[in-house]
User: What shape does this take?
Amino acid sequence: MFNRFAAALHQAVEALAPSQSLLEDFIFHWKAITHYFINNKDEKCPVQESNISSHLDNMLAILEQEECETERNQTGPCMEHLLQHKILETLQTLGKADCPPGMKQLVLSFFTNLLGKIQQPLLPHINVYKPVHRLIKVCGDVRAGPTEKEEIQFLCLVCAKLKETPYLVNFFLEDPKSYGKESKSGLKKKSKPDPSKMEFSLMSSLLSLVQSPDTRIAVKACEGMLLCTSLPEQSAADCIVGNTHFANFLAERLCLLYKALPTSMDPVDVDSVEAKWGLDMSSDADDTNAFQGKRQLISLLSWFDYCDQVVKVAYSTIGDAVSRAIHDKFFLPILEPLLLQTSEVGILTSTSHLCKLVKISESRQLLAILVSFILGNDTSEEQQHDLDQYKLRQRLIERCDHLSDEICIMSLKLFETLLLKANEHVARNLVLRNLESRAYYNRRPLTRSAQDSEDSGTDQNGHDGAGSQTVANGPDGSYEPELEFDDDFQIKRPSTPEAGEGEESLGGSGRMTDEEEVQMGIHKLVNCFLILVPEEARSSLTGDTGYDMYLREAHRQFRECTVNCLPYDWPHQVTPLSTCRPNPVFCEGAFLKVLFDKLTRMLDQPYEVNLQVTSVITKITLFPHPHIQEYFLDPFLPAAPGSRTLFTVLSKVVNDLGSRIAVLPDFQKQVMQVRKQLMGLVEDQHSLPYIDLLEGVIVLEEFCKELAAVTFVKHHTVGER
Assistant: This one.
């Protein structure tokens, strides 16, 4: 009470007394603080009962006023007095001792305001960064302490200052084992310290505060660590990797959060959760889609998103260390056993979790580690009955054809999510590794009798290239080919109505130019897919194929896929057969085999399974690689004996459909009715005994339209190059 009266009396005297200089006022306030410690013998008296706080505020106000009145980049007398008399050193000592009680809080606030409000750079001064460094060390000493708020504000401000001037971080790295060693002459031996063995007190204090029970303190500590890891300084990065438990801490917390999840969760619920790292202000009362384990799942996904952000912005060595730690401590020991288990409920839950983690991964390094964990690192061509396949990859691919439709759909969704990520290894490991040698291409020249039976103009020299595989249009460009298939469902090349009418057949000596291929071939390629489903089985309204509606979406998806694939440096033309390995045996690979097998059975599978299978195949066809273009979207590809292509598989499905609808009355009427039900135009009626067949026909029809749209968009884009 007396101290407050004295402060008020002093203010009254100041109002009546002649004005003093800023330096004199500054010295007065500092002496008032030192006199308090000289005269006050009661160490238990809280600092709130003294006038220390007001004196510190006045000192800060004087420094701000002096800076405004001083020319830029000039140091005023008050600031010089602060630096020369080591006032910050004294305050740091008082704050560390917290004497009187509450002094640490005042000192932290004073340091924070001083560094934040004074515009001139202070940290480079030895009498500033040394006390700042010592004050950093006392932050986070007490878990849930009364000064946590001030500590985190101070630490985050220091992090922000280091972000502005990254080289200053070297002032906060120390190696106590190598510093201060004196020789016999009394001089210090200066040796270059090993950064990986140096202490980084700022990160250590932040790692302590990130475990605070106060969520706001923990989030601010995470922000500070994010700033520290993003500093472009090799020494700081080496110190964080080699002498802090930062990477292990991130991975270990991820493990703890995952273990807190329920053992069974609905994949739909898992996919519906959207979580980003930060302060979560939502409450369970406001949640309209609550389910068991949702809060735990949000915590897990938020922390994984934070790890992903760290890897994304951190120095490369830190990003690699965090990714490896997550792989070694979370993916391998915890997630992999759950993915390899035999319980269907456990398989479904763990696969949905993995799919969600892949979906939210954005950093290049962590995504690469995740992809490697799922698919392995092999990129060599697969062989038939290969027993050395990566176990997890093999198991996940097998589950795409699981007896349980839910597991089948979830596994397919996982691979679809992988195909959407910007990672070349996904496309190469699953598809391209088996297409690089073009072993799917029939390289044996046709005999004369075979050529006659084909009734088309196939080049007798076993040519390669898309141009010679494209059927020429008639003079008006309106000719619709009649598709014919041989015993292996290889498409026969159709001939023009009048071969001598102004154009040579493809079997003649003439070869179309690339420009003519693009102009004259796209229409035929698109029509091959559009007319694949016979008219008597189509569910679309008469005269409305619905193909146009897929064009815009195909263009958007192809543009996004092309942007993702720009860094891959893929070729624009197929590899010439002359440079490919001679006499190869084509193996479509485990992944494509499962997809084609599922596609073959699409007339007997549930609607949801068919949708997912066709969606995955569409994602593959969008990749801007010439071998994918040739293998998946060229109906006239001369496939090697025993080799399947996408078009031949669809042709077999259509042939199977033709034999079925021949014995079913009013088939088209029923399939149109089912289409209306799926679109919600009419109410669902009693399920038909062959509902899978009707829905499968609809999916087949729409899938062909989608492939036609993708074919048009890709050929049109190539034609513009």
Observations:
- The longest strand covers residues 173-174.
